Amino acid sequence: MSDHQNRRLNPALLGQLPATVAVPRYDRSKVGQAIVHIGLGNFHRAHQALYIDELFHAQGAGPWGICGVGLLPQDRAMAEALRPQEMLYTLVERDEGVETVRVIGSERGYLHAPSEPEAVIARLADPETRIVSITVTEGGYYLDHGTGELDQNHPNLRHDLAKPNEAPISLYGYMAEALNRRRKAGIAPFTVLSCDNLQSNGELAGRMLTGFARLRDPELGAWIAANVAFPNCMVDRITPVTTDALREQVKALLGGVTDAWPVVAEPFKQWVVEDKFCNGRPDLAAVGVQMTPDVHPYELMKIHLLNAGHQMLCHHGVLLGYVTADEAMRDADIRALLNRYMDTVRPLIHEPPGVNLVEYQQTLLSRFANPSVKDQLSRIAFYASSGIPKFVLPIAREQLKQRKPMDIFGLLIAGWIRYLGGKDDAGKAITPTDPLKDELQGKVRFGDTDPSVFLGLHQIFGSDLPQAEPFVSAVREALESLYAKGTRATLQNSLKG
């Protein structure tokens, strides 16, 4: 046992793991790769891959295993972590005082697109592939927010359109080439299942891919529009980044076996899927996935309460000196702030079938406060520029339309601006994590209480909100208070109102 400390998770070691660790009880050699997942990160591995793993436990091994694809050069790290483990990895679910540990076996392969582009296209074109699911974050969709259409001038798309027979760069370059090969060979297309946290994600993926394909070849675009299914779906699970501390904890949990890239998540998970597939699908309902003809009400509930609530939490939490969501949620003023935001928004949302929104709100607050997950506020803040226009501003517009008070929305936006000022209330430096941080911070001066330059960011606020006096006034008043009185007093004054 001299190499005990160097043992790496692999199929041969599954029988030697502690009895507290659940392992695949199905025959992995009989698991196919009918699903290709592009953007294999922590969320996918704690969510979709878990549902498929549960399906194999319930019904036995089958075709619906997953081949992961990484589109980015840095995705090589995931390949180097998981391939030596034959795609096995550990999922730790943590709630206060409760921890469960399991090894997931539903991933069967991993392809790194920049270093093996033809292998990726061949896998997508293979008749075995029946669903291509994606989590590439918003940037991977190449959406022009001004027009709502494809940003066809993006250099990656220009490359893929100019040189369709060379190694693609974009999601659409790969999918269009694979679908073109299937069309020419008389092979049925795959379903494209977006699992990104975007409203109407299937419709968006369909519009973007079809638009790209039409630019490449009008006949291909027409074939995709007529034959490929793009179901909408809503996904939900808080999944923090993997840290070295987690790796050490997992090594202890596995009895000294090393897992290069384990995942930790909260116990809660939800997946609502529009039942619209063109080439078969797994029996997802058997493992708790909600199959429905209309995902939209569930999407709106989640993005306007959970995702928007996260944006309120992260910026004000950082200003008060907190690092993780659970720390911030132990602050009575932050918790009351979130309750007030959700109380304001809830009447503006149609209650989805089978959901009680008051109970959902309380569940969210408990999830945010889970001390075992340690979700970093910096991770949540990363999504502000892409998320606030989708999670917060549509419901703010609805509030404006109904001539109701705008102060809670003003406070959310002012908190973001104040955060971008670069110092918390104690004077400690804040380093924004948003991909657009340079552009955003270029519109902010520390101490400046006039938000008009920042609100002029058209790709975020459009042309209507900067002209909406109640909205602008609410942001200005909150910003003035944040600078003059500090975050604590501002929140307490807001809660009095």
Automatic annotation (TrEMBL):
Domain Mannitol dehydrogenase C-terminal: 294-482
Pfam families: Mannitol_dh (PF01232), Mannitol_dh_C (PF08125)
PROSITE patterns in alphabetical order: MANNITOL_DHGENASE
BP GO terms, sorted: mannitol metabolic process
Domain Mannitol dehydrogenase N-terminal: 34-284
Keyword NAD annotated: yes
Protein family membership: Belongs to the mannitol dehydrogenase family. UxuB subfamily.
Protein name: Mannitol dehydrogenase domain protein
